[in-house]
């Protein structure tokens, strides 16, 4: 499949190691955008998360918003540029083809969002680009948190989607840098299965975590009402 059609935009992803998937669609639908005008998408890939942020901010009538994506892989960066240029919000979207470790942000952000790498070095995937897109040796969770913390102001947020088993690691790493998990949404494929993914929203300081869960499929193997409600701004079928 060469791309993914959302209600207000199309995402080509045939040149990207990671295709548009449920993880990003859930994260982009869920993250709290209250008070957000400047967003950074780290490892933007096809640009799906950045485009979702632009649509939501435009729908909320957030004037003057800016969404930037950083991507190291040249083909993915160029595809994100094309996707941004074809979108209704092209004036408010920008791709920076760069290594996030050396990149200097043009501004401080209200939100850093990412579907980051989470496979360990040594695991082999079926595509070199997919391998690069998902290797922790390129960008560890700890490095991502440290880099993001230097690109935001004191009231900003960081939003991530990760395997469930990474939640405790992120909580510990975040706490050592003065952050805490404000919201955590566990994602179950079905009600009788354990959660395999988790959405995290981090804020600076200390506080209690709000724990919730969401099931993607109901007992009839159809999308659950909760999933439809969360993602209805993007999925054509809802």
Summarize the structure in words:
About 8% of the residues have low confidence. By secondary structure, the chain is α/β, with parallel strands linked by helices. The protein has one domain: Rossmann fold (3-Layer(aba) Sandwich). Strands 5-4-3-6-7-9-8-10 form an eight-stranded mixed beta sheet, with helices on both faces. Strands 1-2 form a two-stranded antiparallel ribbon. The two termini are 21 Å apart. The chain has seven helices and ten strands.
Highest CATH level, the class = Alpha Beta
Largest sheet: 8 strands, mixed
Task: List the domain count as a whole number.
Answer: 1
Taking Cα atoms only, what radius of gyration do you get, to the nearest Å? Answer: 17 Å
Mean pLDDT: 90
Supply the number of helical segments: 7
Catalytic activity: adenosine(37) in tRNA1(Val) + S-adenosyl-L-methionine = N(6)-methyladenosine(37) in tRNA1(Val) + S-adenosyl-L-homocysteine + H(+)
Organism: Neiella litorisoli
Protein name: tRNA1(Val) (adenine(37)-N6)-methyltransferase
EC number: 2.1.1.223
Question: What is this structure, in a nutshell?
Answer:
By secondary structure, the chain is of the alpha/beta class. It contains seven helices and ten strands.
Based on the model shown, name its key terms.
238 residues; alpha/beta; Rossmann fold; two-stranded antiparallel ribbon; 7 helices; globular; nucleic acid binding; tRNA (adenine-N6)-methyltransferase activity
């Amino acid at each position: 499949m060469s791309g993914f059609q959302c209600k207000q935009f199309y995402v080509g992803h045939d040149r990207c190691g990671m295709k548009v998937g449920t993880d990003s669609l859930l994260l982009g639908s869920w993250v709290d955008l209250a008070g957000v005008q400047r967003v950074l998408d780290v490892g933007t890939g096809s640009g799906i998360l950045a485009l979702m942020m632009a649509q939501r901010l435009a729908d909320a009538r957030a004037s003057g918003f800016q969404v930037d994506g950083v991507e190291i892989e040249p083909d993915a960066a160029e595809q994100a540029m094309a996707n941004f240029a074809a979108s209704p919000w092209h004036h408010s979207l920008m791709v920076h083809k760069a290594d996030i470790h050396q990149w200097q942000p043009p501004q401080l952000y209200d939100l850093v969002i990412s579907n980051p790498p989470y496979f360990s070095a040594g695991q082999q995937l079926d595509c070199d680009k997919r391998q690069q897109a998902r290797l922790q040796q390129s960008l560890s969770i700890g490095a991502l948190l440290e880099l993001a913390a230097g690109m935001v102001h004191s009231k900003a947020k960081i939003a991530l989607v990760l395997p469930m088993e990474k939640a405790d690691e992120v909580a510990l790493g975040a706490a050592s840098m003065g952050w805490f998990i404000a919201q955590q949404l566990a994602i179950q494929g079905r009600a009788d299965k354990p959660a395999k993914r988790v959405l995290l929203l981090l804020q600076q300081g200390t506080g209690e975590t709000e724990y919730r869960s969401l099931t993607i499929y109901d007992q009839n193997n159809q999308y659950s009402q909760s999933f439809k409600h969360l993602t209805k701004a993007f999925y054509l079928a809802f």
